[in-house]
Amino acid sequence: MYFFNNNQNSTSSSSSSSSAIQVINANNNQGEYKTVVKNGSYVTSAARGIAVTTEDGLNAQSFEQAINELSKKFFSTKKYIFQEGQYLSATTLNDWLDRYSSSNKLGLNPVNNGKTDNSRNPEYLQSIEENDFMTEGSGSNLNLAGMTIGIAMNRTDSYTKTTGGTTYTQSISKAEMVAQGKTIASKVLARLRANKKIGNNVPILIVMYQNASSSSLVGGVPYAYYMSKSGSKISAWHNLDYQNLIFPEQSTTTGSVGSQDNTNFVNFEDDIEGFFPTISSATAQAHYEDKTLTGMKITVNTSFYSVSEIKAFSTYISEVGPKYFTKDIPITISVYASNQLLAVLSRSSGSNFKVTYLYSY
Amino acid sequence: MYFFNNNQNSTSSSSSSSSAIQVINANNNQGEYKTVVKNGSYVTSAARGIAVTTEDGLNAQSFEQAINELSKKFFSTKKYIFQEGQYLSATTLNDWLDRYSSSNKLGLNPVNNGKTDNSRNPEYLQSIEENDFMTEGSGSNLNLAGMTIGIAMNRTDSYTKTTGGTTYTQSISKAEMVAQGKTIASKVLARLRANKKIGNNVPILIVMYQNASSSSLVGGVPYAYYMSKSGSKISAWHNLDYQNLIFPEQSTTTGSVGSQDNTNFVNFEDDIEGFFPTISSATAQAHYEDKTLTGMKITVNTSFYSVSEIKAFSTYISEVGPKYFTKDIPITISVYASNQLLAVLSRSSGSNFKVTYLYSY
Question: Distance between CA atoms of B359 and A91, rounded to whole angstroms?
């Protein structure tokens, strides 16, 4: 799965060449990083495509977002310039992600013990992603000033007994995943520190991420991080309590995380469902940090699509929405009519939504 | 085609009942009309669904937008409350849109002359849409204070010689469409004035619209309007010079409408195409009024979708875009990666784009 590599051009391994380096988002708009463009092209990851496979697109997006958001806490978007990972090559990552074997002593997944039932050694590690954080040196040189390494772990591992045969699923307990993750992270950090181009003193943030199961309607979540200022010793992990929920929930327990938000969402849905004679429906992806709702992505479907109706509906949603949703939480609402996305409502904070209509001329 | 009717609840014909009338968009946000909600539901058109058929969705959206935008020039969004048409019923509209015959003396399309070649009488009229503009009276009553009637005309009329047989297309010249439209509009206005619920003195804006052909990638355009302050005489039409173009254009003539904008767009496309090693492409729908570009809807497709890449790409587009596009023109840019809409960039005026990301959690 992770041997997929779409790297279509041979990227030079040197990321600090002074030739035609251009920094975009120089004004640091909307809280995102400045990024690097070289000779007119975005500097893609040296291992581009390896962590991103079609079948786990949801996890891949969620994984990358988690790495990006956590990086912002340690590498300020005002000071650092983002660059996709240039230090771990596709070959290196493929070796690391593979099983340990006599021909691959670098493999971070356990040796194949030959079993094809639940006594088999599962693959704990699913992908590794590197992000580099640069600062401008003399001239137009960029220097590596920070790095984030995301390590995505499986809670379920799928396998087949014969090529093309039935797919079996092996569960991995949370405790087992965490323990294996710690071992893997220690090895990764030591290997990075041993790389002379990185060295001992570049701050490295390690983000541990738990993949959602393939049937999930939301991606996974990061569950721990460690900020290594220097050296390769990991002294204490910082645990994260993040959750992604889907509303409306099938069953909720009063007092559980999200139960009040789910009730609010169901009330919102009831409100907007009555707006048209034809049925409208709504679902939400809700994101929690430390049991607090920190963002929602809402999808609304309706079966009619006259321009006046969608305008009135979107306006109505933008007016009643704030009654149901905690203030200051970023929310995006996509309004689909007959499977066509016709309006996007968004707010980054505060209670007012801005509506963008996507009609054709 | 136009006998389609999705009106699932029986709407009362009285639109000024005082019971539970609620006006939404009371703060008149984003330049859109306030609209009417009655007993928690949007007041849909009495003829809901008739003008909107699946096969001409593009024209239907474009037609409704044209009516909406032209209405704003005569019925201020600050003063008037928008309500979908309540005076023309589905039955009435079906009769009007049908051919004239001994059993339907109200038909506005010409009699069937029995021919099945180019000597047949084509159906000139495709649809009629009514919008009502209300003001608040005493109590919470709403009074009809203005009306817009959109009349959509065909430049091509499709027909079959036998049920389910081959579809033939009959062309209608611009001059013929305009002449027939004038006759139809006069009859429509006279009939509306004869309706005692509307009367002689409610201002009625008539918008004449030319459908695009079914193979077009953009909708049609309004080509004339007449504002009737009172009475049923149409003294002089106001012609409109609107066009919708697609960029990049297959062939352009230097100096023709849009040729410089097309060049600018192609330069923009060249710029962003080089951003990723994988190919990106872009197309635009450009809207012109009096040969001046007044808005663009751009679609960008790229085949990769790592979060970092899309963020950098969207940021890049938002930075270079203003170099290529005339200032102060509203532009929406939809960024698709592998057929998934992941970012929407929009500006209503000025040169700065706001980016909304549509990733899942």
Answer: 29
Low-confidence residues of chain B: pLDDT under 70: 1-20, 26-29, 48-57, 251-252, 304-305
The pair of structure tokens assigned to B205 is 């804006």
Q: Do B25 and A276 touch (CB under 8 A)?
A: no
Q: Which fold has domain A21-240?
A: sex pheromone staph- cam373 precursor fold (3.10.570)
Structure tokens given for A297: 């992505």
Nearest of A213, A208, A189, A210 to residue A70 by alpha carbon: A208
* Alpha-carbon span A64 to A129, nearest angstrom: 8
pLDDT of residue B252: 66
CATH architecture of B244-357: 2-Layer Sandwich (3.30)
Domain boundaries, chain A: 21-240, 244-357
Q: Which residue has the tokens 């410089």?
A: B260
A103: left (phi over 0), alpha (psi -120 to 50) or beta: alpha
Cβ of B64 and A332 within 8 Å? no
Q: Which residue has the tokens 């959206």?
A: B61
Instruction: For residue B275, give how far its alpha carbon lies from the nearest alpha carbon of chain A (Å).
Output: 4
Give the whole-angstrom CA distance, residue B11 versus residue B166. 39
Residues of A in contact with B339 (CB under 8 A): none
**Cβ proximity of B316 and B333 under 8 Å:** no
Q: What are the tens digits of pLDDT across the range A243-267?
A: 999 999 876 677 788 899 999 999 9
Residue A88 in this model has a pLDDT that exceeds 70:
yes
Residue A361 and residue B40: Cβ atoms within 8 Å?
no
From CA B27, how far away is CA B72, in angstroms rounded? Answer: 16
Q: How many CB atoms lie within 10 A of CB A104?
A: 15
Long-range contacts of B169-174 (CB under 8 A, 24+ apart): B170/B118, B170/B120, B170/B122, B172/B122, B172/B124, B174/B210
* Backbone Cα Rg of chain A: 23
DSSP B183: H
B76 Cα to chain A: minimum distance (Å): 16
Tokens of A62: 């969620």
Phi then psi for A287, rounded to 5 degrees? -115, 130
Common-topology check for domains B21-240 and B244-357: no
Torsion sign (Cα): B129, A280, A300, A315? positive
Checking phi first, is residue B313 left (phi over 0); if not, alpha (psi -120 to 50) or beta?
alpha
Tens digit of each residue's pLDDT (9 = 90 or more) over A154-187: 999 988 888 888 989 999 999 999 999 999 999 9
pLDDT at residue A327, as a whole number: 82
